Each structure stands twice: as structure tokens, then as C-alpha cells.
């Protein structure tokens, strides 16, 4: 029931998508209840087991830490799962196997990144490198575990400054609420250890930006997004929830566009 969860709930409540919001879940049931009461559907606020039991598809939009509980519980119950805290999937390849055994689906929307269709196509052939460069204003990086551990003052920079360079797997540990896009890119592409990421703090920046470059036998592909930070979480760009809403529409519909 954070930024993404509420945006999805509101989209479902508008009635534009043929999907019913069965229930919501939060650590703070009272706070969630206040929000749920504003929806015309008035979904019940349930504990996790109750939510899973009453749903066909569970959408995780919480944290990587919460995903460690939500994913195995949902999949073990044979229910489909959509994951936003995508970095939390990196160290759990067994969840894909569990979904397979339970005949249910694990969905990862593109979220705040663009071009994963092309990356998937490219990876059907030989790909030599995948690199993502993430640029965020200080507010979009503040408080990340890596920033805290390294004692980096993200507000002190006067010009664009690279604060991290490494693999997507390392980045998702150091920046679990900031670069889930690099995990989605890894799954679409060449995996979290070969996918490289640079994270750049942009003083005075107003957009969360991600530049992806893929080089392979197909040639070279680049993508660029300038994502407006959401109103309630500066780390999260608006396309994050719009992408999840679009994926829900496709799941509920008969036609699927793109790859
Ligand atoms: N894939 C992508 O492209 C993107 C992914 N993300 C990721 O998606 C996730 C959600 O993002 P966003 O909505 O912006 O984050 P918010 O911080 O706005 O909301 C997260 C919510 O999760 C709740 N929460 C935390 N722990 C638990 C738990 N154990 N059980 C239930 N609820 C819990 C928090 O509520 P409270 O603290 O009140 O309990 C909070 O309301 C994050 O992990 C974020 O990094 C974000 C942007 C893009
Ligand atoms: O919205 C963004 O820029 C991406 C983001 O927070 C994430 O990937 O975790």
C-alpha cells in the first residue's frame, strides 16, 4: 500500500481493467484500511495468508525483504505473482522452479525501464555486453545501504558524480529500492553478473533517468528514459506503476502486444 500499490489499486478501482481488487495487505492494517475505504470497491485489508487465499494473482509492491516472504508463500499456494522489487528475485532462482512446479506464473513488468523487448530479442543471439547508466537526483538515492555504508553525502555534489559501478547483482544489494530496473534488465538479458551498471547522482536533477546499451551480433541498441519521480516516493518513477498496470491489462485480456 505504498506508491506503486496505491496507484495500481486506484487504476483497478477506475474500472478500466477487467480485474477485481480482491484484497490489500500492509504491515500497517489501520493505515491501509483508511486508504481502502476511499476506493469504491472497498477491498478488505487482510493478512498475507488471507490475501493469497482470496486472490488469483498477488502483486508485490513492497520491498525486496518483504518479497522473501511473499514470493514463496504465494507460489507455494499455486497463485500467480507479479514482482516489482525485482532485485529480490536475483538470489532465488528456485522461485521460478517453484512457479513451474505449481503451474503458476511469475510476472516481472518492465517497470521504470524501456526496451526489454529488444533486449530479449537480442539475447536469442550472441550478446557481448549490456550496460545501464542510472542518473537520479540526490533524493532518489538518499538512504540506500551502499550510500550509508560508504558515508556518501549525495547532497554534497555540485556536478554529476558517479557513486557506484559494478554488476547488477551488486547494485541491487547496495541500492535495493533504487535500481530494480537493473534486475529486470538482467533477466531479459545476460544475467545479473554480466550486466554492468553505473549509478550517477545528479544535483538539481528532476528526472530518474536510465540509459541502456546492448552490443551483440545484431548490432547496437540504446534506450533512454526520463522518468518523472512519483509524488510520494522520489526513488520511484511514474512509469513503474504505469507499466505494472499495463501488464495487468494484458494478463486480463486476450491480446498481447510486443514481446
Ligand atoms: N521494477 C521497477 O522498475 C521498480 C521497482 N520499484 C520497487 O517497487 C517496490 C515498491 O515501490 P514503491 O511503491 O515506490 O515503494 P514505497 O516505499 O512507496 O511503498 C512500499 C510499501 O511497502 C510497504 N511494506 C514494506 N514492508 C512490507 C511488508 N513486509 N509487508 C507489507 N507491506 C510492506 C510499506 O508500508 P509500511 O512501511 O507503511 O509498512 C510501503 O507502503 C520497492 O521495492 C521499489 O524499489 C520501484 C520503482 C521501479
Ligand atoms: O523508478 C526508477 O527510476 C527505478 C527504481 O526506482 C528501481 O528500479 O528500483
Automatic annotation (TrEMBL):
<dbReference type="GO" id="GO:0016639">
    <property type="term" value="F:oxidoreductase activity, acting on the CH-NH2 group of donors, NAD or NADP as acceptor"/>
</dbReference>
<dbReference type="Pfam" id="PF03447">
    <property type="entry name" value="NAD_binding_3"/>
</dbReference>
<protein>
    <recommendedName>
        <fullName>L-aspartate dehydrogenase</fullName>
        <ecNumber>1.4.1.21</ecNumber>
    </recommendedName>
</protein>
<dbReference type="InterPro" id="IPR011182">
    <property type="entry name" value="L-Asp_DH"/>
</dbReference>
<keyword id="KW-0520">NAD</keyword>
<keyword id="KW-0521">NADP</keyword>
<feature type="domain" description="Aspartate dehydrogenase">
    <location>
        <begin position="158"/>
        <end position="245"/>
    </location>
</feature>
<dbReference type="GO" id="GO:0009435">
    <property type="term" value="P:NAD+ biosynthetic process"/>
</dbReference>
<keyword id="KW-0662">Pyridine nucleotide biosynthesis</keyword>
<dbReference type="InterPro" id="IPR036291">
    <property type="entry name" value="NAD(P)-bd_dom_sf"/>
</dbReference>
<dbReference type="GO" id="GO:0050661">
    <property type="term" value="F:NADP binding"/>
</dbReference>
<comment type="similarity">
    <text>Belongs to the L-aspartate dehydrogenase family.</text>
</comment>
<dbReference type="Pfam" id="PF01958">
    <property type="entry name" value="Asp_DH_C"/>
</dbReference>
<feature type="domain" description="Aspartate/homoserine dehydrogenase NAD-binding">
    <location>
        <begin position="1"/>
        <end position="109"/>
    </location>
</feature>
<feature type="binding site">
    <location>
        <position position="180"/>
    </location>
    <ligand>
        <name>NAD(+)</name>
    </ligand>
</feature>
<keyword id="KW-0560">Oxidoreductase</keyword>
<dbReference type="GO" id="GO:0033735">
    <property type="term" value="F:aspartate dehydrogenase [NAD(P)+] activity"/>
</dbReference>
<dbReference type="InterPro" id="IPR002811">
    <property type="entry name" value="Asp_DH"/>
</dbReference>
<feature type="active site">
    <location>
        <position position="210"/>
    </location>
</feature>
<comment type="function">
    <text>Specifically catalyzes the NAD or NADP-dependent dehydrogenation of L-aspartate to iminoaspartate.</text>
</comment>
<dbReference type="GO" id="GO:0051287">
    <property type="term" value="F:NAD binding"/>
</dbReference>
<dbReference type="InterPro" id="IPR005106">
    <property type="entry name" value="Asp/hSer_DH_NAD-bd"/>
</dbReference>
<dbReference type="InterPro" id="IPR020626">
    <property type="entry name" value="Asp_DH_prok"/>
</dbReference>
<feature type="binding site">
    <location>
        <position position="112"/>
    </location>
    <ligand>
        <name>NAD(+)</name>
    </ligand>
</feature>
<comment type="pathway">
    <text>Cofactor biosynthesis; NAD(+) biosynthesis; iminoaspartate from L-aspartate (dehydrogenase route): step 1/1.</text>
</comment>
Amino acid at each position: 500500500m505504498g506508491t506503486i500499490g496505491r496507484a495500481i489499486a486506484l487504476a483497478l478501482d477506475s474500472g478500466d481493467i477487467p480485474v477485481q481488487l480482491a484484497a490489500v495487505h500492509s504491515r500497517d492494517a489501520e493505515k491501509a484500511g483508511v486508504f481502502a475505504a476511499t476506493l469504491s470497491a472497498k477491498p478488505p485489508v487482510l493478512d498475507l495468508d488471507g490475501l493469497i487465499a482470496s486472490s488469483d494473482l498477488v502483486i508485490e509492491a513492497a520491498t525486496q525483504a518483504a518479497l522473501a516472504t511473499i514470493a514463496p508463500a504465494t507460489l507455494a499456494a499455486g497463485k500467480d505473482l507479479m514482482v516489482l522489487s525485482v532485485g529480490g528475485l536475483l538470489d532465488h532462482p528456485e522461485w521460478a522452479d517453484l512457479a513451474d512446479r505449481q503451474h503458476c506464473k511469475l510476472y516481472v513488468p518492465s517497470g521504470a525501464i524501456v526496451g526489454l523487448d529488444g533486449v530479449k530479442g537480442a539475447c536469442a543471439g550472441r550478446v557481448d555486453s549490456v550496460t545501464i547508466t542510472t542518473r537520479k537526483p540526490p533524493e532518489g538515492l538518499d538512504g540506500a545501504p551502499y550510500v550509508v555504508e560508504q558515508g556518501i553525502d549525495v547532497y554534497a555534489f555540485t556536478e554529476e558524480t558517479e557513486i557506484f559501478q559494478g554488476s547488477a547483482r551488486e547494485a541491487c544489494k547496495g541500492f535495493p529500492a533504487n535500481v530494480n530496473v537493473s534486475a529486470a534488465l538482467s533477466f531479459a538479458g545476460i544475467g545479473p553478473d554480466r550486466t554492468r551498471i553505473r549509478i550517477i547522482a545528479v544535483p538539481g536533477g528532476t528526472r530518474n533517468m536510465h540509459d541502456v546499451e546492448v552490443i551483440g551480433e545484431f548490432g547496437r541498441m540504446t534506450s533512454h528514459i526520463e522518468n518523472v519521480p512519483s509524488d510520494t516516493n522520489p526513488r520511484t518513477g511514474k512509469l513503474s506503476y504505469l507499466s505494472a498496470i499495463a501488464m495487468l491489462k494484458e494478463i486480463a485480456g486476450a491480446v498481447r502486444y510486443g514481446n
